[in-house]
Amino acid sequence: MFEKVSQLISEKKCQIGIVGLGYVGLPNLVSLATNGYHVIGFDILEEKIQALNAGRSYISDISDEQLQDLITKEVVSFTSDYQELRAADIIFIDVPTPIDSHQIPDISYVEKAASMVISQVRAGQVLVLESTVFPSTTEKYLVNKLTEQGWAIGKDIFVAYSPERINPGDGNLNVVPKVVGGVTANCSKLVSEVLSNQTHIVSSPIVAELSKLHENTFRFVNIALANELTQICDKLEVDPFEVIDASDSKPFGFMKFTPAVGIGGHCIPVDPYYTSWYMKGYGMTTEMIEAASRVNESMIDYTVKRVLKLLVSQKQSLTSGKIAIVGATYKKNVPDYRMSPVPKLIKALASYNFSCEVYDDLLTEMTSESGEVIPVKKVNYPDLNAADMTLLLVDHDYLDYRQLVTHSQLLIDTKNSCRDINDSRKITL
Questions:
Q1: What is the dihedral of CA 370, 376, 381, 385, to 10 degrees?
Q2: Residue 342 phi/psi, 5° resolution?
Q3: Is residue 356 flagged as an active site residue?
Q4: Pairing mode, if any, of strands 38-42 and 76-79?
Q5: Which residues, including other chains, have CB under 8 Å from residue 175's CB and lie 6 or more apart?
Q6: Which among 390, 364, 366, 387 is positioned nearest to 377, based on CA atoms?
Q7: Which CATH superfamily is domain 217-428 in?
Q8: Start and end of every UDP-glucose/GDP-mannose dehydrogenase C-terminal domain (predicted)?
């Protein structure tokens, strides 16, 4: 069976299925189809399937033209009928893995997707979980379920975990190495053959699962260190970015991280909690993650206090006021506001009777966790004059930073984007 599947892959005669057509699944589908495979995309949301079949993309990294070209070439198809997955030789599972309000992992999407895939499984299929999960998830929801049905993993069915490494704003997936943890050596080999780009094969799915959590926790912890440095520098009246740049002049033993009012996106602010929650089952407290979490969560309160302190220094009233927030996406140049700190910041400022206007050319509105719709305006620099202070949260390339400073009564630059502009109204975080 291994040789047969391997030959299908090498001759590009295998059909690939993608379960979940979101920020990971759709770019994965386009990448595989562009590399010569026929790919069928599955999602439970009918509106997504209708849009994709019409050649309309809802993800910024994938253009309508890319989709339409692949549809015209008849190398992709889209469906909400999970029974069609039976035709796929290789299936990638790319469904969401969020946390709830108590920072407890929600693995229900993986459980449901795995159940659907297994209900249609046939001999010779390769099943690959890519969603970020806690250790043992691949074993629990794929391996054990298949084994219970009598399938021999590595002989009848091939199973691996290969964590996604999507970088929003960078559409070139083919140059990003992929970790592959197969249940057996043959499982890893087949997945590596499909991916074709550089792969790093590890001994088991659990190693691959933990590697994904570790690489994102690494960023989470180091951002916390930069955030703590910022608060130290505030006490000592030192520019934190100057300190960081000075440290970065060392050519070894230092990696540059910068502070953030909030960590957004669906990876860095989520994944560490998968590790900490899972390890509680082993009676272990992940001290570093817990400490980093406290520091990162303190940045909203720190930013609000910084705003109040600076307004007092300018002899402005604190009974009410207006704040202009420039930049609302979680990442520069990407129209995605998942877990952006902006809604929490607005709520915190409102407790001091400050109203906020949000500006970002990449959005028209955003929704808070409570469901409140927050309007987002395009940046019109003269409008900033009406605010008591401007908060620059995202350093989009389209912004004119000199205009930003010129039209602000007072500017807190949280990204050090205005470092080359000499103006007393500009203050770093």
A1: -40
A2: -60, -50
A3: no
A4: parallel
A5: 197
A6: 364
A7: NAD(P)-binding Rossmann-like Domain (3.40.50.720)
A8: 324-420
Token pair belonging to 239: 């520019």
Class of domain 1-203: alpha beta
For the chain, how many residues are written?
429
pLDDT in tens, 165-205: 988 876 666 678 999 999 999 999 999 999 977 899 999 99
Terminal C-alpha separation, the chain? 59
CA distances to 53, 90, 268 from 204, in Å = 37, 19, 23
Asked if 131 contacts 96 with a C-beta cutoff of 8 angstroms, the reply is yes
Evaluate whether 1-203 and 217-428 have a shared fold: yes
- List the domain boundaries for the chain: 1-203, 217-428
Q: Residue 177 is encoded by which pair of tokens? A: 């190495």
| Cα gap 365→37, rounded to integer Å | 37
Pairing of strands 389-392, 373-377: unpaired
User: Among 14, 233, 267, 356, which one carries the catalytic annotation?
Assistant: 267
Question: 68-79, pLDDT tens digit by residue?
Answer: 999 999 999 999
Torsion, Cα of 154, 158, 159, 162 (10° steps) = 110
**417: which 2 tokens?**
């984007």
Helix axes 64-72, 25-34, angle to 10 degrees: 50
Which of 290, 234, 304 minimizes the C-alpha distance to 262? 304
Integer Cα distance of 235 and 208 in angstroms? 42
Strand 38-42, strand 199-202: pairing: unpaired
